[in-house]
Inverse folding.
């Protein structure tokens, strides 16, 4: 059973460019959440997708956008990159259940460096 | 708003000694609490979670945590540290809303295990 997968592993971009990160959820999961982890910090929630719609959003600007596909996979897009966007981007998947809290399972992350 | 405070950004213990990593939470509703571990250059792995079923929660790799409502704490312990436990540990809180919920993380505690 494959876990959460993310691509690419590493990415180097320059300021002002745009980037797309990809995530495939764990088998059986229908919800994808994205987190940004700056160096030495805990992950910060960006947004969450369920049924191909953004359901929740953290305190991130509109430069951060996403998409969820019918097969539950997801993309994170960041426009007009800033140096401060350099971070590890983590994808987490879960399954919405009405009777219990969902446990989020994390992928290995994509390390984005903005020069 | 929910929040998590992890006391001590770095903890060092000898191999075989007790591990104690501290986590205090703030939540306006009964919380769901998690401990995740992150090894270098990897994503987050779930150690254990509290979802109100039992106050003492046992997780993987010999770790356990006790939920104390009166102290708003969820400290992580392990009776005997092993070299392989060296990693970054994150406490997280999630507020149950009946749908997939976002996680709010602490800033992490780096555990060093010495011979």
């Amino acid at each position: 059973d494959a876990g959460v997968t993310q691509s690419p592993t590493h990415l180097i971009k320059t300021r002002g460019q745009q980037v797309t990160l990809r995530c495939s959820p764990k088998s059986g999961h229908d919800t994808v959440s994205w987190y940004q982890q700056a160096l030495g910090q805990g992950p910060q929630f960006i947004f969450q997708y369920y049924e191909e719609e953004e359901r929740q959003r953290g305190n991130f600007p509109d430069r951060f956008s996403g998409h969820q596909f019918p097969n539950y996979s997801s993309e994170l897009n960041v426009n007009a990159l800033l140096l401060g966007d350099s971070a590890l981007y983590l994808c987490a998947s879960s399954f919405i259940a009405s009777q219990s809290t969902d446990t989020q399972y994390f992928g290995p992350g994509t390390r984005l460096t903005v020069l | 708003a929910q929040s998590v405070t992890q006391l001590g950004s770095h903890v060092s213990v000898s191999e075989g000694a007790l591990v104690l990593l501290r986590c205090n939470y703030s939540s306006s509703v009964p919380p769901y609490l998690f401990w995740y571990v992150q090894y270098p250059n990897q994503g987050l792995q779930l150690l254990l979670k509290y979802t109100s079923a039992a106050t003492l929660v046992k997780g993987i790799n010999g770790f356990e945590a006790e939920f104390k409502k009166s102290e708003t704490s969820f400290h992580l312990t392990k009776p005997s540290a092993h070299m392989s436990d060296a990693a970054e540990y994150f406490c997280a809180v999630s507020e149950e809303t009946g749908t997939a919920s976002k996680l709010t993380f602490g800033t992490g505690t780096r555990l060093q295990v010495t011979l």
